[in-house]
Hints:
The chain is built from 23 helices and 16 strands. It has helices at 8-11, 44-68, 81-84, 97-106, 110-119, 123-144, 167-185, 207-223, 240-248, 282-288, 297-304, 316-319, 385-388, 440-453, 457-485, 500-509, 519-530, 534-542, 558-561, 563-568, 582-587, 589-594, 596-599, and strands at residues 2-4, 18-19, 29-30, 73-75, 147-148, 164-165, 256-260, 293-295, 322-324, 342-343, 349-351, 371-372, 378-379, 411-413, 421-423, 434-439. The strands form 7 sheets. The protein has a 3-stranded mixed beta sheet with strand order 1-7-16. Strands 9-11-10 form a 3-stranded antiparallel beta sheet, with no helix packed on it. It has a two-stranded antiparallel ribbon with strand order 2-3. A hairpin with a 5-residue loop joins strand 10 and strand 11.
Amino acid sequence: MTKRMKTIDKLFFCVLVVAGLSSCQKWLDVNVDPENPTAETSTYDGLLGNVEFYANSAHQFADWRTGQGMGDWTGCYGRGNYANASYWLPVSGWVTTSYQWWFVGAYVNIPQMIEKAEAAGAWHYAAAARVIKAYGFMLMTDLYGEMPYEEAAGTDPSITAPKYADGKTIYLGCLKDIDDALALFDKDQNTAAAGLAAGDWWMNGNVAMWKKFANFLKARWILKLSKKAPGSYLEGKYDEAAILAALAASYGEGENSVLHHTDNNSTTHDHLGWDEPVDYSPLYSVCGMNWGYLVTKMLYDNLTNFAGLGVEDPRADHVLPWREASVARTDGVTMDPVTGLKYSADGKWFRGLGVDLSEPIFSQKGPLRTYVDKGGHWYCDSDNAVRQNDTVYVEQTSSSKGYAANKDLLYRRGVKGGIYKAYSGSFYTRVSSPTYLGTYAEACFIKAEVLFKQNKTADAFTAYKAGIKASIELMNQQLESWVAGDGTLEACPSFAPMAQADIDNYLANGIGTAADLTLARILTQKRLHLMYSVEVWNDMRRYDFAEDKFLNWHIAADHAVSTDALKAIPAGKYLRRWMQCSHELNYNSANLKAIRDEVVKYADNVDMDRDQWNNAPDVWTVNVWWDSDK
Length: 630
């Protein structure tokens, strides 16, 4: 299922205007705006598109911010808080946006949506709302551990400060919502109720795909309990049988839940202050349109020489950014033996290298941003010979026709009156890059992990290989779409669809065999498919950041020389949660304090006895509930 986003601006019309936890005493304050529907006048079919938009954006913003910390991406020197995440220097500025977009943009509308849908016999709307509720709250407990939950809706005016729920309560509540939703999807809707397609742009009203998505989420989430004792997931235990059963009811080959964003500057914008169009990819908003984000050597090596097998992944050209060469090569060399840079067949483009985080490059004031002089030559503005070589790194910045009013998706850099040179951007962060809600590829990797741990190596390899193949094919669909929309893009290697011969060679020779399959290969291929996803962080937490489980991963060297990073993540500890955001400290501090007794059992030498435990500098190292054997 691949639904185009062309209808989101039409669906995005029914929203409750909610203050972002302002000085009023209510935790969520719903204001009255005569130009917008209220809780009383809104309709369940009108609310769904709005809820889907904000829930997806909350997830994507968290995907990006957590992704920086898992080692695949970093930034230029001076890029700021998000690039600094690559060496585990966390800051409070990370933690607010996803929280606000979930609670203020999405969840505030869900209870009345469920109530109105059930009153109308619109069971499929009630079911979809429960899936989205679970999707959002599972994100909250992944990020923060504990959160207001049972009292978080803001529908009871007597509750101005909602109590917290512990992680287990939220986790089990999300799984119950999934099971309840599956039952509701099987109910016949009232014939007088609005059809699901009228308000749904995630699945375009396809109930069968909603059920597959719900089962996929169920498998993904039960997998997170791998540290728990074996048993029923209904009791918060690790349930391999339930994972495999959910996968069997989820996506088959060629089935995916993907949002295909559009390169339009629609008149419909978000309501939470960013004032940006709702059509485009959230990852473009926070990453692709911005300067300074770079590939790491870890990602580069995993894509160009996976597991040391010597075969380049055909996805490498599309994830690793390209840049126009200062002067086109005419010698026919496509791999420069001195720099290691890969050039296009026509010599006009080169692909950037990865920043080696095993060296303390940030403390050495690198890597620097690259500029273009009037003659069209790339340079770094430094007298340091080492930093001058930072031109081998290519930012993933891209552009757009709709939002940026550019002639295509390429970002161009230069000097006024001089020559401008183009950047390709990266597959996952362009204006019209797809959002993977759930995919057959990820389902295959989950299955491969479970089967591998059951010593069913042959079956695990079959699932593993199917996942890689599915990931490549899904990427190729989007590449074909881009060049179909603008044939000039195919001249850039980042956009040219992958050749079948290269795909076949990689699957035959570049991923290993059943005889040498390892958990590290499964988990690393999974992250190459997901790339920007909180699930990468979830997997790394499940396996305690073990270097033998994630190929080429190491804690960045700058962490060991940064005083502030060591305060937040002391040596020997790991980044395991986000601290609660300032809104909770400012407006719900009593309840935040009250949950301390549940949190302390997961804290290892963290000062939980201070007046507010959430202010401990190393609170980032406290395990969330599912990330423990307790």
